[in-house]
Amino acid sequence: MKSPCILCASAMLLASLQPVSAEVTLQLPSDVELLTVNGQKPLSTAPVTLSNGLNQIAFRYNAQYRKQANSVRYQSDVLIVRFNETDQELQLKLPNIDSAKAAKQFDESPSLSLLDKHNQAIAFDQDRLVKNGLQIGRNFEQEILLYNQGQHPASLAIAAVQTIPQASLGTNTEALPAATIVTSTAVTVNTTIKQSATPDSPTQAEISHMLDYWYHLADDATKAKFKAKISGK
After folding, report:
1. pLDDT tens sequence across 74-91
2. Is residue 80 part of a domain?
3. Looking at the 3D structure of the chain, how many domains does it have?
4. 217 belongs to a structural domain
5. Which of 13, 26, 109, 202 could disulfide-pair with 206, CB 3.0 to 4.6 Å?
6. 127-136, 162-171, 197-206: lowest mean pLDDT where?
């Protein structure tokens, strides 16, 4: 029979051989609106748990600052960050936006950093996901899929299956492939995109942003009517 000391030593040895972590966690600021993680809608944001290796997130920065007596809501472009890390605890850092000048500076040159648990900067690739025109009801999964199919600074090669309604194919169906497939050894994500003329329902963050935007464009009389309406007077 083995002595307790030998058993204890064996248990300690086995424990030391086990990996401390087998994943990457990413902590995001509270004013970050996470839109996609590796091309998919995020399951959680506090924190984001990722597989080791190459990962990509798309997000917006929703800040708020004072301008004279008014509160101004700021929303950035959709930003894309791609990084390649193993067994790390990461934290996304964004500059404080407390004025129209700071908001403009961030729009022109978004400065952000990715730090590990030792507060050391981690290398990453950065880009924007730009869409002109109406911003409400955007399909970010579809947009990021199209982005990733191009050669862009923060593209992530994923396996994607795209389905197109038969009615949109016309008579010459042989000219179009049944599926579009992009392969990668880093990450594989299966995505089906539904083509539709109707946009996705806007998020509460988008609705709040647009309410604030139109309110500040209104004159005093319209603002007074709006306040009376929501207060039930």
Report:
1. 999 999 999 999 999 999
2. yes
3. 1
4. no
5. 202
6. 162-171
Residue 154 in any domain: the answer is yes
Range of 95's domain? 20-198
Q: Are 183 and 157 in contact (CB under 8 A)?
A: yes
In tens, the pLDDT along 82-119 reads: 999 999 999 999 999 999 999 999 999 999 999 999 99
pLDDT digits (tens, 9 = 90+) for 68-77: 888 999 999 9
Return the closest-CA partner of residue 102 out of 132, 71, 69, 76. 76
Q: What is the DSSP string of the chain?
A: ---HHHHHHHHHHHHHHS-S-SEEEEE--TTEEEEEETTB--S--SSEEEESEEEEEEEEEEEEEEETTEEEEEEPPEEEEEEEESS-EEEEE-----SHHHHHHHHHS---EEE-TTS-B---EEEEE---S--TT--HHHHHHHHHTS--TT-----------GGGT-S-GGGS-S------SS----------SSPPPPPHHHHHHHHHHHHHHS-HHHHHHHHHHHHT-
